[in-house]
Each structure stands twice: as C-alpha cells, then as structure tokens.
Design brief:
Blueprint lengths: L2 E4 L2 E4 L4 E2 H8 L22 E5 L4 E5 L4 E2 L3 E4 L3 H17 L4 H10 L21 H9 L6 E3 L6 E3 L14 H5 L6 E5 L4 E5 L3 E7 L6 E4 H10 L4 H8 L3 H22 L4 H5 L44
Parallel strand pairs: 1-7
Antiparallel strand pairs: 1-2, 3-6, 4-5, 4-7, 8-9, 10-11, 11-12, 12-13
Helix pairs in contact: 2-3
Length: 316
Amino acid sequence: MPTVTIDNVAVEVPKDATILDAARKAGIWIPTLCFHPAVPPQAMCRLCMVELDRGGWTQLVTACNYPVRRDIVVSVSSDRAVQARRGVMELLLARAPESKPLQALAGRMGVTGTPYPQVSKTQRDCVLCGLCTAVCDACLGRAAIGFAGRGKDRVVSTPFRQPAEDCIGCGACAAVCPVGTIQVRIHEKEGEIEISPFKTRVKAQLCQACGARIVSVPVLEEALGKARIDWEKFRRLVRLCPKCRRKAAAEQLAEVALAAAQAGYVSRPKAAAFLPSPRRGRGGGGEGAHATPPLTRPSATLSRKGRGNNDPKGSA
C-alpha cells in the first residue's frame, strides 16, 4: 500500500484512496463543504486544498478527490495551503453570509469576515457545492434539480424554475445541504410536504395508528415498488410512524416470549423480560385497567423441542 506523509505523519492507505482519507486516518483535520460519503467526490467548493510536494515544485490539489497511487508528501498547514483555503472561504462567505454552519466552519478556519461584496438576495445562502444535485441524480436517479445559468448567475434550480414533476419529496437534498439552504416544510392544513426553495409540493402519508405525518406518498410508492418482502406486513408497518412501529414490534415480541415460556422453551424469568409492563386505562387502577396476562405453567398439550406430546418428560 502507498504511504502518505501528511504534515510529517506517515500513514498507509489502500491504492486509489484519497488524500482526505489519509488525513482522517492520521487524525489531521481538513475543512470540507461539498464532500459527502453518499455521493462521489465533486471537488466543487475547493475548500479542501492542500499542497502536494512533487519533488522540486509543489502544487495545490483538492484532497477530497486526489487519488493516492504512490508514496506522496502532502502539507496541510503550509502557508500556501492555508491562505488558499481562507481565500476560498472568504468567497463563500460573500455568497452565503447568513449561513450559520458556514460561519461556524469559517470561525474554525480563522476567517472572521469577507472583503468581497455580497451577492443578491435571490442567490444568497447557496454555495453551489453540488451535493443536492449529485444525491438527487446519482443516488436517487431523479435529477429533479440541477444547475442553471452561468458565472455569477449560476444557481441550483428545477427545470424551467417550476415545481419538479420528478421530485418525490424525500428530502435527501435538504439532508446533505451543508449550509442549510434547502429546507423541508410541512403544510399541516394541506397535508403536503414542500421542498424549499424549489416550491415543489407532494402529499404526505399519515400514520394510520396516530395520524402523524411520516413520509411523502411518492417515497412510499417508490418503496412499495422496489421492496421484496411480506407485502401485507410491510403495507401495515410502512403506514405507521416509528413510535407506533416500535410499539407493534414490542407487542409481537411479547406474544412470542409468552408462547415460548408456555411451551417450556425458555424460563419464565427470561420471557418476562420481553413482556410490557402493566398498562392502565384512563381510569387509573379501576374500570378499564388491564395488564399483560401472567406467565402460566406450560400446558400438557405443548411439547418441548425434540420431544413428542406422548413423552412424559415433555409434559408438565
């Protein structure tokens, strides 16, 4: 395996690993903005630049996508690399001056402001990192959003700046957005999920047990179309929120534990650990209160594993 010497720390990494992988293995921090493990490296933000020693001359390269194929020497803390990263951050602050995550990252890099004029409000807070477009296209295969315009007018947009018909409202673009520009908004009255600022709306699926909104209807339909499982069980569970789903799973586990104890497969103390605690109705301990049935002695009709019903050792 090739060796990467980064700030005088030598680490071995697999061939075609990146400088960023080597830095993280060595415990050396390199700022990143457009990097996410779910999508291929984009090297769009240029915030991860480091200085590569080429034996007699050096070169600035992006750490997130530079492949390591031989032994190399890299400097993260050199003056040239530090000044390059700070210059990029100043440009990003001019584009997204109100982004709290970006301000926090700038503070960690020692950048407190920007000498450049701020962009217009219509383009503000998007740093054009490309993560949202990459996850929508490469991971989901939807391509509901993409880059539009050139130069200073370049933006992330839906086709023709209209609500995207291919958007399923999954919120993946909002999840990977490093500066919080993309937001998922819930419209309670309309029962819809909006992906802002693209103004795309889709219907929300309600939990059939408690009525909570859990996922968009297109995402549910996409899952139903691709999953290969017990359809009836899946259809019941996918329409429950996580809380109700855990409750249903606990009740099923309690039934299995009770049956196992009655059959003698497990001891009653072990089975009791899986049973829910006694539940009370609205009337407290009076009328309407009910509890989990106690573990009873195994019935004579039930047999232990590997023994027949006529075996006296298998009966209670």
